[in-house]
C-alpha cells in the first residue's frame, strides 16, 4: 500500500512540473507573439488588448470609450443635482494606468503564482478595469454646490405651550453629503458611465424625537427673571446661552452640566464683553449675563424638586433674584449640575419673551407629587466703617471714599406639602460678605473753612 502512495505522489509531482514547464513555455511564446506589446489574453474593460503596443492600445481605447463623456456629468442627491463639465474637474478614463498594468504582466512570474496567472491568461480571464480619474480639489468644489442644496441639520422635536394646551412639533431628520465617500464612489465607476451618479448621503437622526416628548405632559418647575434691555451685549450673551439650553432632553439617571451644554464663553462662539462679578468688583468679561440663565434654571430645578449635584452662589448679591437663589458659573471652574432622578426624561425649555427670561421644565408628575415652595430667610450684615488718615486733606475734614455695601446671610428652605403633611428642609446657607465703608480723615496742617 505504501508503494502505491509513493507512486501516486511521484506521478502528481511530474504532472505539476510538466504543467509549469508548459505554461512557462507558453508565456515565453505569448510574450514573443506579443511582439513587445500587451500579452495575449488580456482585456481592458472588456475590450481585447492582447498583442497591442502601448500606442495602439491608447488609440483603440480612445475610439472605443472616447464618447463615454457627454456634455456633463450629472451627480444627484435627495432630488437635487449638479451638472459638471468633465474639463472643469479634469475628468478622464485613465487609459495609461490600465495599459501599464497590462504591460506589467509581461514580467515573468514563477511557481504556483505564475502558473495560475498564465492559466488565467490562457482562459482570457484577465480584464483590467478602466477607472475614472479627476482633480480631487476641483471635484470637491463642485460637490460643495450640491451640499449647499442638500445638507440640512437635524431638528429635534419641540414642546411648547402649557399644561392646558401643549404644542408638539415633530422632529426633522438631518442629512448631509459625505464628500470623501462620494469621491471614493466616483473612482470606482467603470464604463459604460451611467447617465446620473448618486452621491453618498448620510442621514442624521434628530437628538429629540416625538416619542421622547409625548409622555411629558406636566410642568415640573418654572422660573421667570427680568431682563435689562439697555444692556445690549449682556442680553445677546443671555440669548446665546438660552438657545443652547432650549429643548435639551435629560434622560433618567443622567447628570446635566450647564457648562457642557452652553459651551465655552468665547468670542469665537459669539459671546461679547459685558459686566461680570469678580470677587467684590464688577468688571467687563466675555459672557457677562450668562449667570442669569444658570440662576433662572436653578430656581426651576428647585421648584421641580430635582437633585442638585453642584451649585455655587455669587460673591455678591445679584439684582434679578433674592440672595441665596442665585447660581454662578465660570468656564472650567464653576458649574451648575443636576441629576434627573425621575423615571421619565426632563425637557428644558428656555425662552426670551416680553423682556423676561423664562425656563420651564417639562416632565411627568407622580400621583402623589408634593407641592414645593422655596423660602429664603435673609439676614442683613451691616458693613464695617474704616477710617484712613489722609494728609492731603485739611485736618478735621472727612471724605467718604466708599459708601460700602451690606452683606447678607441667606438661609434657603425647601417646603414640601403633600398628603403626608409638610416637611421643611434647609438646602443652602450662603454668605455674601459686606463691603466696608471707607472714610478718609484729613490730617493736613490747615483746618477746613466753617
Summarize, please.
Helix content is 28%, strand content 32%.
Radius of gyration: 40 Å
Helix count from the secondary structure assignment: 10
What is the count of β-strands? 27
| Main β sheet profile | 4 strands, antiparallel
Into which percentage range does the β-strand content fall? Answer: 25-35%
The helical percent reads 25-40%
Coarse morphology = elongated
Are there runs of 5+ residues with pLDDT below 50, and where? 1-5, 29-34
Structural class: alpha+beta
Overall average pLDDT: 87
Distance N terminus to C terminus?
Answer: 141 Å
Order the strands across the largest sheet as they lie in space.
Answer: 13-21-20-14
What features would you highlight for this structure?
single chain, Resuscitation-promoting factor rpfb fold, four-stranded antiparallel beta sheet, 10 helices, 27 strands
Structure description:
With 450 residues, this protein is α+β, with helices and mostly antiparallel strands. Among the domains are: 215-369, no CATH class; 378-450, Single Sheet (Resuscitation-promoting factor rpfb fold), CATH 2.20.230.10. Helices cover 28% and strands 32% of the residues. The chain has helices at 2-33, 54-65, 95-104, 111-122, 136-150, 179-187, 210-213, 232-245, 258-262, 290-303, and strands at residues 42-44, 47-48, 73-77, 80-84, 92-93, 126-128, 132-133, 158-162, 165-169, 174-177, 196-198, 201-204, 218-226, 248-250, 255-257, 273-278, 281-286, 307-310, 337-339, 346-353, 356-363, 371-381, 385-390, 398-402, 407-418, 421-432, 437-442. The longest helix is centred in the first third of the chain and has 32 residues, at 2-33. The chain is elongated.
